[in-house]
Amino acid sequence: MAADQSIGLQIVRSHLRYLVKNFCLSTRKFDEVRLKELKNFVRRNQPVIFNFIKELLVFLKQPFVEIRIAVLLICDEFFQRSHVFRLELSNRLHDFLVLSAEISPMQVSLPFSRKDSIILKSETFRIVKSWHEKFSAAYPKLQHSFAVLLACGIDQSSTTHETQENEINRRKRAKARFVVAEITKEFNDSRGDIMRCIRETHCALELLVPKFESEKSRTANTVMKSLDDRPLLDTLHGYVSSDTISITIPLEAPVLTRNQANEALIDSLNDCLKMLRYFENLITKWLLKLTKYGCEGEMVIRDAIETRAKLKSEIGKCEELKLSKYSMRSRYSSDSDSDDFEDVPEKEGYEPNFKMPYEVPPYVMSRIEKQSQLPLTEHFVHGRDNGSSEVGPSKANVPILPFGLDLKYWGERDIRPAEIPLNCYDCHPFWRATKDSNEIVRDSVEVYHSRLITYVGPKLTVQQCRAPRKDGSLCPRKEHRKCPIHGLIIERDEMGYPVEQQPLVQKRSSAMMDNEFLKDIERAIGVNLSDKTKYRSRRKDMMNDGSEVRRRLSTKLFNRRSLKRISETLDSIRKAKAAKNFQHQFNYAVSNH
């Protein structure tokens, strides 16, 4: 029996997975074949219904709105047909509503967006309402569950969702009407200017490039057209030319020549072309907005399209004439800039392109001669240094570090000290050395091998801390002044105790002996010799008492006027914050006015 139940549970689980996986949310339909197989299997195996409802609740815990709606519809299918299913689901109806209708949001909330939650709640309310209308008399738990749904306000979720959608659509329609009304008003206001600009452009083009077509040419054209309508054999006559005739038709636009006669006309046509392009861009923007709300302004769209077609035709005609090269700038570029000035004769002997001869300074020539007299190697070295100075830093910016003779002769063993001749001539007019000697002073060899570095200040001695530690040993740290663990380094004895505290201990012992001797004398004579009157100032008592500080601060902080001022400030801040968040609401505005 247990094996049959496990096999039946596996079959039910596989059918549920397939149905949920292939469920279409938009059409709310299942695979009819698999659903029918599941219904037949559950009807033949009634004991599997308990486990079947458990599986449905497991699927109902999935965090996807499609899966939960699919489970709801499957429950509806079986609830309408099976009494056993209705009994079992009535016993688990609270869990069912918690997962589908969110009747206890503090414990279990729906894990998806608010819009999906509203859809799921409205679907749950619809299904439970249909169950209540059909089976509430036979199943009291169903009646209580429907009352819980009504108490939680689930019935308002669907209506609220529809109301929100209707409000959104109403706002969109209102915005569309407003936009169309604004564009219609602007179009009607500027239509007169657009048509006037089109007429001016058309008239200017007719004057610049007229159409030479008279009444005679029109009649000739009609005659030729009638001849063309006749059959080909009737139009042929006895003379047939055997020569080929080539006709060249220029496809370019007519060439305009700017002169004094058409100057003003071309300028006005350029201005009209600018206005036509401006109006074309403006109408294009209007059409983009109107196509967004097409159902509201069909008449305006049609008129705007026709007007834009007229504008494009006139702009195309102007662009064929290439009016950009006949602008005001080309007009003034053809004429000289000195038309308004009088011609002045040039001076005799004046040469505007004459330049003074370039004279090389003498110090430059002398430097060039010196460099030419240098040997080739020195000249090459100087030239290389000059070339490298352009790439690297300048010599003035390069730091110069002095170094001694020990670094100059570093690593050399055989060093001959420098020979300095003895100077016996001090330029004194009367006195001179007894003998003129050519003695030579030689430096000491130590200068070439070692360097003497002097340190300024007292020599710092290193002392051992020797403070006693917990394990009985002494601190082995050696510092100049202060140990990072035990503080200042002081003199200590062999056990690690400070040496300077011994006189203090001796003083304390002598003072204690004096006190004992004084007490013996007091016992003998019966007079209190050690009692001294203690004078305490009131100011000192006040400073030592902590309650006095608290009392003085409380008199300042808890003053009536201070409390009133601070409370008014806090109330104004709170009201401003609340008004910022809720002033747009109707209830808040009514309650505060």
From TrEMBL:
The UniProt record lists the keyword Kinase: no
Pfam families per record: DUF2043 (PF09740), UVSSA_N (PF20867)
Membrane spanning stretches: none
Ranges for region Disordered: 331-350
Main location class: nucleus
Residue span, UV-stimulated scaffold protein A C-terminal domain: 397-500
GO CC, alphabetical: chromosome
UniProt record, GO biological process: response to UV; transcription-coupled nucleotide-excision repair
An annotated Gene Ontology molecular function: zinc ion binding
Compartments it resides in: Chromosome
Keyword terms: Chromosome, Coiled coil, DNA damage, DNA repair, Metal-binding, Zinc, Zinc-finger
PANTHER family (alphabetical): UV-STIMULATED SCAFFOLD PROTEIN A
Family per record: Belongs to the UVSSA family.
Name of this protein: UV-stimulated scaffold protein A
Species in which this protein is naturally found: Dracunculus medinensis (Guinea worm)
